UniProtKB/TrEMBL annotation:
Protein name as it appears in the record: 1-aminocyclopropane-1-carboxylate deaminase/D-cysteine desulfhydrase
Annotated keywords: Pyridoxal phosphate
Domain Tryptophan synthase beta chain-like PALP: 26-292
InterPro entries assigned to the protein according to its UniProt record, in alphabetical order: ACCD_DCysDesulf, TrpB-like_PALP, TrpB-like_PALP_sf
Gene3D superfamilies given in the database record: 3.40.50.1100
Family indicated by similarity: Belongs to the ACC deaminase/D-cysteine desulfhydrase family.
Lineage: Bacteria, Bacillati, Actinomycetota, Actinomycetes, Kitasatosporales
Length: 302
C-alpha cells in the first residue's frame, strides 16, 4: 500500500476551520473556531484518520491486529480501512463473555467489514502488551501481522496528529482537544505554534505522564506548549452529568451540529467554562477540535 492508495480514500484535508458565532466567547473578545476533523472521512473520522494514516502506510498492506472494547470507534475505523484498502484486520476485543452472543451494532459493523474478532478475558486483555501474551495472540494471526495498540496511540499516530497542529498554526492562538490516551494531544501540541488545552474525559490524573511518554516516543522529548484541565470528565469515561447533557443539547441547538458526547461535549463544556472564567486573553482565536462525529450516537463511541 503506498501513499497514493491512501490518498485514493480522498480524505478532506486540511479539514475545514469554521468560525462559530457564540456570544459566550464574543463578549470576552474571543473568537470560537470549529476545526471540523469529523468531516475528514465518513468511515475514518477525526483523530481516527490522523492516527491510522502513518500506521497503515507502515503496515504496507499486511494484516493489521488491534485492540478495543465492545464499542470501540478505533476498532470500527480499522475494520473500515481494511475493507476500503483491501488488507485483513483482526480485532482483539475485551471480554470473553461476549463470545457466542449476538454482536452489538459496533462489533457487527466490524465483522461486516471483514474484521476477524477474537474475544479475550479481561486479565489477558490488560496484559496484551506483555511479550508472552502478545506472542500468543500473534501466533493465531497471519505471519507478518502489524500491531496497532489500543486506541491507535503509538509514535506514528502521534506524528500523524502533528499535521492537525500544523493545519492550525497561524490560524488560532489556542487549540482544545478531548483526551483519552493523550495521543491526539501529544501530536497536536507538537505541530501547533500556539497553546494547546487537553481535556481528559477519564478520571485519574494519569494523562499528563501518558502524553509526555508519547511525545518522548514520537519526537524524543517534550514538544509544544500544552496544559491539561482535569475538571471536566463529568464523573469518568462514558459518564455524564445533567449539566453536561443540557450544555450539549444547547450547543447543538445554537450551532446546528450533532455533538459526540463521550469526548467532544466535555471539551466544549470546558472551553465555555474557561472562557467564562476569563482564562483566555481578549483577542484570542480558540480552535475547538471536533475529533469525532455526533451523527451516530446510537452506535456509541465507547
Ligand atoms: C471522538 C474522540 N475524541 C477524542 C479522542 C481521544 O483521543 P486520544 O486517545 O488520542 O486522547 C477519542 C479517542 O479515541 C475519540 O474517539
Amino acid at each position: 500500500m503506498d501513499t497514493y492508495e491512501l490518498a485514493g480514500l480522498r480524505p478532506r484535508l486540511p479539514s475545514p476551520l469554521e468560525p462559530a458565532a457564540d456570544e459566550r466567547f464574543a463578549r470576552r473578545g474571543l473568537t470560537l473556531l470549529l476545526k471540523r476533523d469529523d468531516l475528514i472521512h465518513p468511515d475514518l473520522p477525526g483523530n481516527k484518520w490522523r492516527k491510522l494514516v502513518l500506521n497503515l502506510r507502515a503496515a504496507g498492506g499486511r494484516p493489521v491486529l488491534t485492540f478495543g472494547g465492545a464499542y470501540s470507534n478505533h476498532l470500527r475505523a480499522t475494520a473500515a480501512a481494511g475493507r476500503l484498502l483491501g488488507f485483513p484486520t483482526i480485532g482483539i476485543v475485551r471480554g470473553d463473555e461476549l463470545a457466542g452472543r449476538p454482536l452489538n451494532p459496533s462489533l457487527a459493523r466490524c465483522a461486516a467489514d471483514g474484521m476477524r474478532l477474537e474475544f479475550v478475558d479481561r486479565s489477558t486483555y490488560r496484559a496484551k502488551h506483555e511479550p508472552a501474551v502478545l506472542a500468543a495472540l500473534l501466533g493465531r494471526a497471519p505471519e507478518g501481522t502489524y500491531v496497532v495498540p489500543e486506541g491507535g496511540s503509538n509514535a506514528l499516530a502521534v506524528e500523524g496528529c502533528a499535521e492537525l497542529g500544523r493545519e492550525l498554526s497561524g490560524r488560532a492562538d489556542v487549540a482544545a482537544v478531548a483526551c483519552g490516551t493523550g495521543g491526539t494531544l501529544a501530536g497536536l501540541a507538537a505541530g501547533f505554534g500556539g497553546r494547546t488545552l487537553g481535556v481528559p474525559v477519564l478520571r485519574g490524573g494519569f494523562l499528563g505522564a501518558e502524553a509526555r511518554a508519547l511525545q518522548e516516543a514520537a519526537f524524543g522529548g517534550p514538544r509544544g506548549d500544552w496544559w491539561l484541565d482535569e475538571r471536566f470528565h463529568g464523573g469518568g469515561y462514558g459518564r455524564t452529568t445533567p449539566a453536561l447533557d443540557a450544555f450539549a443539547q444547547d450547543f447543538e441547538a445554537r450551532h446546528g451540529l450533532a455533538i459526540e458526547r463521550l469526548y467532544v461535549a466535555k471539551m466544549l463544556f470546558a472551553l465555555v467554562s474557561l472562557a467564562e472564567e476569563g482564562a483566555f486573553p481578549p483577542g484570542s482565536r480558540i480552535a475547538a477540535v471536533i475529533t469525532g462525529s455526533g451523527e451516530s450516537q446510537a452506535v456509541s463511541s465507547r
